[in-house]
Amino acid sequence: MFSPQRTMGQYTTPKETVQYMTRKLLSELPEKSDLKILDPATGDGIFIHTLLEEGLTAENLYAFDIDKKTASPHPDVHFYYEDFLKVDQQGQYDAIIGNPPYKSKRQSPYFSENRERIEREFGKIGIHNLYSLFIHKGIQCLKPGGLMTMIVQDSFLTNIYYKNFREFLLKETEIKEIVLAPRRLFHKGKADVRTAIITLKKRDMEAAAFTQMRLVDRLNEQNYNHPPEDNIQYLSQQTFEQMPAHNFAINVPEDILRHFKVPYQPLGSVLKGGTGISTGDDRSFLREFKNEHAPLDWIPFYKNGGSKDAWYYEPKYYIHKNWPEYVDKGENFTVRNRSYFYQRGITCSSMGVDFSAALLPEGSLFGVNANLFPEQEEDLYYFLGLLNSKLIKYMVRKVLNRTNMITSGYIKKIPYIEPDPLQKQVMIETARNIVDKKKENPSFQTGEWQSLVDQTVYEIYGISSFSRSKVHDFCHDIMEKI
Fold it and tell me: Which pTM value belongs to this model?
């Protein structure tokens, strides 16, 4: 047996997942004896072995791998110790299946070692992770009408860096199905990675915009073949084409999705700001004053609150008032949005699965997390309430960005609906009351006031009771649902 962890970032795919992918692929393929099916990063050969178990002959199967420790999965399979990303086999295969490596540009020396070729061949889709290069290359190697089923990291679904890659998929393929794979699928291989299974067809004709995609929400290996009905959604491919940055939103109710269809008014039209100070070395520039008052020459610094810090929290870090001197001394000390410094605003969490917002007190500075400022000061508490609602958390984490880094750019893409005066007043008063209580008691449970905020936001956005239930379930168990 070979180690499941591969040098390029590939892990052995569990058998149940391989069986589902194999059967899905074969169900979409025509029955003919001369099929050519490829696994471009075969590893221990589990996909090849499963295809053989499903009745394919070795003569039908082709495999590539660059790992010399990997033995041929079968003596009669067409097996090559070559870098698939370097081969020229356009239009050669009826189908491609596999689990390509997941290594980002920063993690793998492969990118720097092959920089010029990668930029030349893949630059248009964005060069961020090996798996997206494998999919791009695989589509080129498919015959028109050929099929692909891959399990890959799910970052391509919403991350802004994959916008061009999503656009490429929408233009060149018909998306048959996207399944959010089990949350802990690769934990046995000591890989904490969220994955998705995508099945697509290389276009052999123009009309694909109205192709019905089957979208399946996060599931476990026991219900691949019979997922809960609530986990399944059918949408036209055109829906993704109309999304901002062509986001691939999986199993999102249509009365929520409709708010994202371009053109729409984004939150960024009424909230300004963004990142602030990046010290380059927080240990050197920031201090904590636990159980003591901070000296007057140290300024409160808000860098990234957590879910427990929603609404209001006391500053955890401070930066010296002479911070402007660091800009010239430290080459990694950078400053943005200086015009918003010391103003009262809203500071948002940026790292981790959850999302929350808190009051940014006057006289404070802020880091590289999202820090936002309303055009009208009197609207501050309204937007604080809005950003702490379950619906907005759902929009941020389910639709706009499934990865664990939420920047101001994502938050500014939240659809904005102007509330009526009564709705705005209810939100302002409720948010102000919660902040006051949090100042008195950081452990204060928002309870009924949070429910009032959620109810008001649902009404503003016209969300049905069915969709409210979906939002609640997602937010209640976000670690498992994301």
Answer: 0.91
